[in-house]
Amino acid sequence: MPSMSSLISRIRWLVLAAALPGTLLAADLQIEHVTIVSPERATPMRDALVRVHDGRIVDIQRAGSATARSRRDANVIDGSGLFLAPGLIDSHVHLGEIPGMRSDQEAQHPEIARAAWDQIPRSFLLYGFTTLIDLISTPQGMARWKSHDIAPDVYFCGGAALMDGYAMNYAPKPQRYQSWPYMLIEAGTQAPDGIDPALHTPQAVVSRMKADGAICVKTFFERGFGGVRNLPVPKLETIREVVKAAHAVGMPVLMHANSDEAQRFGLDAGVDILAHGLWNLYQEHSTTSEVTPGIKKILDEELARNVGLQPTMQVLYGLRDVVGASFLSDPRLTRVLPSNLIDWYRSPEGQWFHVAVSEDMKLPADATPSQLEHAADEEFASVIDRGKHVTAYVVARHGRILFGTDTPSAPTYANPPGLNGWLEMHRLLEAGETPAEIFKSATLTNAQALKLDRDIGSVQVGKRANLLLLRQDPTQTIDAYAGIAKVILNGRVLDPADLAASAAHKDPIDGK
Ligand SMILES: [Zn+2]
Fold first, then answer.
1. Distance between CA atoms of residues 424 and 406, nearest Å
2. What percent of the chain has pLDDT over 70?
């Protein structure tokens, strides 16, 4: 006889199923005869049966074993010839804005904005990203993301920027003080009108983040670049206090640090993860893009202390390609961006960031496409090269590489959702990571670094059913993510054909 609690839970199921007609809540999911590829396994598990109940993996066994049999009460997928892998995690994204579109432009083009917001979550899923970490967000930002019918799971860090420092400098005053609720105000600094500095000490900021549901703290060490220079940076003691407060409540601390000076500072402050490769050289006077003795010293210490590193090499390509003239012709964009958004990017208004970066580079306004391509290559070649060499140095020594893209790193259309992750994988391959290492960086390593490995990061009983059914083995080729068979999000089976932006142009012949 069923116990009272199981009766109650069955009743709850019926109520839920009735309340949400057409969803897959009613039945379990069973994937049969599939090959499991998971980062904690030395070898794939062939001919496996995986059972999913209530959005979690509840059973894994050999398909041929005595207790394994097809169950009529489940939605069964024949996984013959397919690989089952954990969904990918991008541990560095920014989800608050449409890439390349300012909020005032968004307000002027509500139809384009609606299409974009509808598509962005699907594009991440299309390339296998079932979990995203927004490194600068708020509960309000997260609620907006979660309001989409189909969207990757999302977590956030609070952005502990120094008052008026990077990256809050880009927002106008005084609105920036509202949009950066976790800013730090150091002792001896005049607080803005109406802001109580006691609420902006390291301890107060970290406590508030924790209470708001953040899983991590994002800090910054950046004096500026492009047209912005001489921004204030935090004192070492301030960030040490942030780290202490964060660790006391179990939160890892990330630091925006892309130079020798910044990574040295991050090491001294004791942060857990350095966001970005070391591609700017400020302390050492050298123009080489090779790993210099000064860089080597910093990287060796990062390796010795097992600091997490997010190379985010697409950041630089996202700037290079917004200056160049060919990116918007890439046919892959039509899979991840609605056509009206691509058209808008091509318009004079949509070219605003291209104009801004070109002006920073002092390019003539009437430069031809080939002049632009050439200038973009020249401008970014040395930082791209240094980023690659630094990543290669760490990869060769088995450093703790976390997969993160920083999508979008700036208001650039050249960091498109989902596709940008796949492009980052190509950069990591160029820096020497194998497909198997990239797979691990983007799953278990990320999950462990962000303390999410109880729930995600591998195909194991008890974990959330965020899974990918792939036609190729992802430990052998990153092409596996470019033609995914099915994306499974908390047990819900999604067809990539329905996730692609171009799906909007197809006839809905299958009645969905
Ligand atoms: Zn970022």
1. 10
2. 92
> Ligand 1: distance of its center to the CA of 68 in Å?
46
Q: Cis omega (within 30 of 0) on the bond before 408?
A: yes
| DSSP result, 138-198 | -HHHHHHHHTSSS--EEEEEEE-PBTT-TTGGGSPTTHHHHH-TT-B--TTSPPPTT--GG
More confident residue, 226 or 56: 56
226: nearest Cα among 316, 351, 322, 357: 357
CA 135 to centroid of ligand 1, rounded, Å: 6
DSSP 441: I
Cα(69) to ligand 1 centroid in Å equals 47
Residues with Cβ–ion distance below 5 A, ligand 1: 406
What is the average pLDDT value for the chain, to the nearest integer? 92
Tell me, in angstroms, the distance from the centre of ligand 1 to residue 405's CA: 8
Q: Can you give the pLDDT at residue 504? A: 52
| Tokens standing for residue 299 | 């990287």
Rounded to the nearest angstrom, the distance between the alpha carbon of 475 and the centre of ligand 1 is: 27
Q: Which whole-number Å values give the CA distances from 173 to 72, 136, 166, in the listed order?
A: 61, 18, 14
Max distance between CA atoms of the chain, in angstroms, equals: 81
Task: State percent of the chain over pLDDT 90.
Answer: 86
Whole-number Å distance, alpha carbon 92 to ligand 1 midpoint, is: 6
Tens digits of per-residue pLDDT, 64-117? Answer: 776 666 666 899 999 999 999 999 999 999 999 999 999 999 999 999 999 999
Tokens representing 353 are: 């960031």
pLDDT surpassing 70 at residue 14? no
Going by pLDDT thresholds of 50, 70 and 90, the confidence category of residue 63 is: confident
Q: Tell how far the Cα of 219 is from the centroid of ligand 1, in angstroms.
A: 10
Nearest to residue 101, comparing CAs of 112, 88, 91, 92? 112
* Range 326-330 average pLDDT: 95
Going from the C-alpha of 510 to that of each of 71, 162, 189, 507, the distances in angstroms are 26, 53, 62, 8
Predicted local distance difference test score (pLDDT) of residue 70:
62
123-152 CB burial, b ≥16 within 10 A, e <16? bbbbbbbbbbbbbbbbeebbeebeeeeebb
Average pLDDT score over residue span 409-421: 96
Q: DSSP letter at 371?
A: H
For 443, list phi and psi in degrees, rounded to 5: -125, -95
Distance 136 CA to ligand 1 centre (A): 8
What's the 486 CA to ligand 1 centre distance in angstroms? 29
Least confident of 14-18, 347-351, 458-462: 14-18
β-strands 45-53, 56-62 pairing: antiparallel
Interatomic CA distance for residues 458 and 193, integer angstroms? 48
